[in-house]
Structures are given as structure tokens and as C-alpha cells.
Amino acid sequence: MKFIKTPVKGMVDMLPQDMRLRRHVLDIIRGSYSQYGFMEIETPVMEHIENLTSKQGGDNEKLIFKVLKRGADLQRAIDAGKGEYADNGLRYDLTLPLARYYANNREKLPAPFKALQMGNVWRADNPQKGRFRQFMQCDIDILGDDSDLAEIELIAATSNTLSRIFSEIGITDFTIHINDRRILSGAALKAGFKEEDIESVLISLDKYDKIGVDGVRAELIENGYDPQTVDSYLQVYGQDRFDCDAFCSAIGDEYLDPEIVRRMDEIMACSAAMIDSHITIEFDPTLVRGMGYYTGTIFEVSIDGYNFSIAGGGRYDKMIGRFCGQDVSACGFSIGFERIITILRDHMEGDMKIDENNTAFLIDKKVPSEKKMEVLRQAAQLRAQGTTVIVQPMRKNMKQQINMLEAQGYTKFEKIYKD
Amino acid sequence: MKFIKTPVKGMVDMLPQDMRLRRHVLDIIRGSYSQYGFMEIETPVMEHIENLTSKQGGDNEKLIFKVLKRGADLQRAIDAGKGEYADNGLRYDLTLPLARYYANNREKLPAPFKALQMGNVWRADNPQKGRFRQFMQCDIDILGDDSDLAEIELIAATSNTLSRIFSEIGITDFTIHINDRRILSGAALKAGFKEEDIESVLISLDKYDKIGVDGVRAELIENGYDPQTVDSYLQVYGQDRFDCDAFCSAIGDEYLDPEIVRRMDEIMACSAAMIDSHITIEFDPTLVRGMGYYTGTIFEVSIDGYNFSIAGGGRYDKMIGRFCGQDVSACGFSIGFERIITILRDHMEGDMKIDENNTAFLIDKKVPSEKKMEVLRQAAQLRAQGTTVIVQPMRKNMKQQINMLEAQGYTKFEKIYKD
Lengths: 419, 419
What we know:
The structure is a homodimer.
Chain A: H1 16-35, E1 39-40, E2 46-48, H2 49-52, E3 66-68, H3 71-80, E4 86-90, H4 95-105, E5 113-122, E6 134-143, H5 149-167, E7 174-180, H6 181-191, H7 198-205, H8 208-222, H9 227-235, H10 244-251, H11 258-274, E8 280-283, E9 297-303, E10 311-315, H12 319-324, E11 330-336, H13 337-347, E12 358-363, H14 369-384, E13 389-393, H15 398-407, E14 410-416
Parallel strand pairs in A: 1-5, 7-8, 12-13, 12-14
Antiparallel strand pairs in A: 2-4, 3-4, 5-6, 6-11, 7-9, 9-10, 10-11
Helix pairs in contact in A: 1-5, 5-11, 6-9, 8-9
């Protein structure tokens, strides 16, 4: 039987030049975040299927790769005939596993806890350009801090880390969009929508940047909402730029706690004080973010010329309580690593440069043992001094061999002939 | 519903101090191997179920975590009733995926190709101390080099890398065991076993280090082999140390190509010339290694006081051909990362030290925005200068908070009160 040599659908083999770029970016991210006091942790890639299908993940739950039960458990599941074949699944994000992790290890962790995770997640999505079924996310989260310092630190750390990554290719300008779930709710309630309609209204509003205010209006009316309510709702949205205080005072204290507005102002002002002047922080009342678990502030990062966000996050104060019975405030920011790699690749000419001081020993196959040993001792000495050394059999077409090695950064060639 | 807060059976949540040690060791491994010209690559964690269940993995194939088909495919599988619910599985090692990868990407890779992989693998084994269902392996492989330079480079790179890791905790002595599948076959054939019995005979011989020569004898006879053949076979095995030339000449040219013996001698001599003098290279004709795919040299690394090997590998010249229809010589060495971490932990007092020049800003919750902004600007400046800075709300029990931060490496504390 011949085996299948392509990777599984929607997943990618990383070539050496791909990995070099990925490692470089991952090292920047790790180094930068550790300066902010974030500590790296790791959870298993598999989670209990009960946790993964608990309605915390929204639409992502439809995309879970499920892991088959084994042995007697599987047989019992087949016999029962209820289709419950899976006991575990691959994580679709790093947030739900973090909530479980924190509930499980809380007493061993500092408070507040600043976590860094860099790991793959899996979604059985339809593969598209730049969208894969296995992809990496880099998340920072602050658990156990209910003050707005959590938001401020997350925004500062993420902005400055993105700055470090993109400055290498000359991109310095990007925008942090910020909003609050409670402002979204307040605006909808004020216009006359009912509490139970908010979710559906926000699903339409979420398309604002694609279909505009008229598109959102059409969809809401199509969904059966009262046109007068819809118009009242969208009146405040038909603008290019939004002022937080003006927008929120239009909602009014009855539907929006003024403390939320004060906090939003402080987050924006304090974050701005900590980040590169090229980065804009912008109040964006059209920002919704899909995940159902957010409870307060939400944010996203966009970059000119790309119609996707490169990072996003927010506050989710209710998730950890689902695991340990006691709410723990939590706020996180996730970098879409693959999207960043896509943008870097777009702006790079060729592959990443490699160190070019490497030595290659090319040894004729007929060189006797004694001489070979002597040469290998030399190679070992060079390596002990810190040089990168490759040792290879000399090939018939040595010119081609040397060209290939030069492309890998080898500049010195020691040719060892049999005599 | 309350969620499950423990990790999936047999898998582990990594605490910050665990990750610190793991990162440290992974960085040594990556740095050391890259000096030998190995280039890092990555394959998806999932492979086609057909590849994983193709008899290349021996007993590991019984331990595969299988991934359920999705959507219409799953429904068809259920309707068909043949139990074929899985289309993919999680990789149980890094070798089979590498063979697929090489077949798929060969024309984009240098020849010979020196690959480094550091990644998790999954086996639904019974969890034991130090044995997990998700664990990391660090593999180097040389593809497309049929000369013994491949073995020599692999042994030198692995030995010196292990040396770097263990010298930090004062362990300098370990042993490389080396053998060849063709020597194992030759010895069995010479004694009178049939070709088709070799696999079963080697399964018994593999227990030599646990049950001794008498145990192996008893098992072989119990399995129905002729006692005279068994005695003839084991006659040469009843020793403490083995000399390669003596052992092989007892087999004789008829059952063992003298070129194999010459090559083994050269591998041992040349490897010894490249590695730390504390490391012993020992011909070990009792070394079998379980995986069915090995075709020539095999090796393993042991360390005094531990009854498990910490690294192992060998030559497998026939696997890549299964993917691309054309044999490509291949040889690899895999470090058992989790076992190394276990040994390091045994020898360390407490956790890894952390850099201790970090600054913590503790901010009273009532500090007004303006002052907060000023303080955050200072924190940003310190970070820009390279200092690690944490910013936290001041807690009521500040003494406890400072103790906790000191344990994380913070030595300077800036306390910001509201006035």
C-alpha cells in the first residue's frame, strides 16, 4: 500500500524557512510579554468534550475536532446508539482551557495571575487563504484583577509587542478599537429593543464594517424589528468617528452606569500614555466580537490595508466561575499569529536572512577512517567554539552541493579528499 | 452545569515554573542542534488514519487517539456500520509524519536534509509516573545520506546536546548503546532460527536487561523453540561487556556482511572522536528497540541510576519509499524530553532561578487618573529600557502581596498611594 503524502486537509507542513520566521516572531512575543510580567503556561491540546460543548465558544463549537472514545467506552457508546462517540476534543481556543486551568491550579498561582499561552488551536472550518484548520494563537490574560489596570496592561503589552514585530518591516501605524458589552446593551435597550433581543441585534450590528449602517438597518427590519426602534437605534451609529462621552451620554444613565463610561475614558487615556505614538486608540461602538462570554470591555486591533483584525480580546468575568463555583474576574488579549505571519510574508522580499558564518565539511566517501576521525575532531572543535558546522558526504556534483549550502548560509567549505 | 476542572486523563497542566524549566531545556536543544546544521520544521499534529495504522508504528498503533469524521462523512460511516468513524488521528511519534513530510516537500528541501522537530505526540497509554498521554519529543533526522556520516553526526549531536543539558546539574556520565538490526538477524540465523522467527526471537531478547540471559532462555523455550538452537544463540550473549569484532566474527561472513561490521567500527570510533570523554559508546548486541521500521544501525542512551533510556533512534531506509515510491535513506535520533525533565527535577533543589531585577508598581485603587497616567508612563519607560515591570492594584494585605512578588523575582517596589 502506498501512503498519503499530503497533510490532512486545511493543515500545513512548515518548511525550514517558515519555521525560522515563526520562531523569530514567537521569540519577540515571548520576550516582550515577559517584560510585562506575563508567565508562560501550557494546557493539554485536548479538553473534555463536556467543557468544549458548553456554549462558551459560540459558533466555534460547531467546528470542534472530536476525539473518539477508546476500548470498552467506545463499545458501550456504539451499543447505546446515541451517537456519543467522543469523550474529548481538540481545543478551539486558548481561553476556555485557561479558565479550566485556573480553576484547577488556582492555589499554586500568584494573584492576580498574568498568563501567557502560545499554542495551536483547531477548527474544522472551510480552509481559505490564510485560514487553516490548525493555527497558532498567542494569548495573554490577567486573572483576578477587576480593576481597569488589567485592560490597560493588556492593551499596552499587545500594542507594544505588535509594534516590535511590525517595525521590522516598516509598518508602524495601527488602530486599537475599544468598546464595552454594556455600552452595546445600553444603546439597544435605550432604542427600545428588549433584553432578549440584544443578542440577535448585535449579530446584525457586527456586520457594520462590511455592510454599513444601511445594510444593518435592512437586516434588522428583515428580522422583524419595528422600523421606528431600528431607526432610533441606528441614528447614533451613522458616523465616521465616535466620541465615547457623546455616544454614551446619548444612551443616558438609565441604561448605562456612568462608572462604565468613566472607566472607558480612563482605559483609553492611560493606555495611550503607555504606547507608541503611532498607535491610535479609538472608541468604536460598532465593535461587537462574536464570543458570547465577554462581559465588559472588548477590543480589537486592525491594520491599514487588511480587512481582518490581527488581535482581539476582552473581559470575561463569568467563565472561571463555571469551573470552580466562584466568579474570578478575567480579561485577555489574543494575537492572531497566522495573520501576522501572512502580513509579514506580504511585506518581506524572500525569506528571513540567516547567520552567514557557517562552515561545511565535504568528505569524500573514500576517505579512510583515520583521516575522517581527524576531520571530525576539527569539526567538533569549531562547534565547541560556537560555530555552526555541517558535515556531509562530498557529492559528485559538488558545485550544485555548494550552491545549495550557500543558500543555507554556509560560507566556508572544507573539502576532504581521500588523499 | 458545572464544568470539569481537571485536565483530560493522563495529561498535565504546566505551571509557570514547569514551563520555565521546559523552555530552558528546549532552548538548549534548539541552540545545540542548530550548530550541527539541523533545521527546524513542523508537521500538523493530525495525520491521515491510513498512514497512522499502516503497521509502521508497532504497538503504538493500538494507542492512537482517533479523530471523529465530521458532517456527512460521519453520517455515511454510521450508516455503513463498519465502525470506521475516524478519518484522522493524533501522531504517536514524529518519525512517520517526517517521512510523509519529506515525500511531500522533497523538491523544496536541501539534500541531504537535516531536520529538527520539537513537538508533542499522543498515546492512549496507561498513565504512570513520568509517562503521560501527551508528551514532547525532540527528534533529529538526516534524510538522503546513506553514508555512516549520518549516524556519526546524529550520535555526536545528541551526545553533546545531552551533555550540555545534564552538566548543569552535575551529571556528566552516560552511555550510548549501539547495535545493528542486521547483526541481530545474523546472530539469530547463525544459531539456527528461521527468517520468519526473527521478530519473535527479538521480542524475547529485548527483555534481556530486565530478565537476564536465563529469563530470555526460559521464554524462548516456552515459546516452543528448540532448546539446542536457543542455547547456541544465547551462548554469545552471556557476557557483561561485548566486543563488536569478536561478537560479529562469531556470527561469520555467511550471515553478516563484513562491511556492516567495518561500518559499525567506524561509527563507534568516529563518534568517540567527536564527543565529551565522559560519554561511553558501547556495542550492545542485546539492544533491539521495538519499532519495526528500523533497517540498520540502532542506538539508545542510558544514564546511571535510571532504568529507562533517555534517547533512542536508528536507521530506517524503507519508510519514505512507502510515501513516494522511491526509497530514501534515513536515520534519526529522538530525545525523550519528558524523561529528561523528570531527571532534572530529581536533581534540582526547588525551581529554576529567575532573573531578579524586576520592578513592581503597586497602585492604590483610589489613585486619580492623572496620577495613574504619570505612573504608567514611568513603567513604560522602564520597560523600554529592558526592565521587567509588573503593574498591579495595591492589595489590602500588601505584605503578602510583596512576598508573593518577591517569590516571582521582583526586588524593587514602587507604592503609589492616592495622595
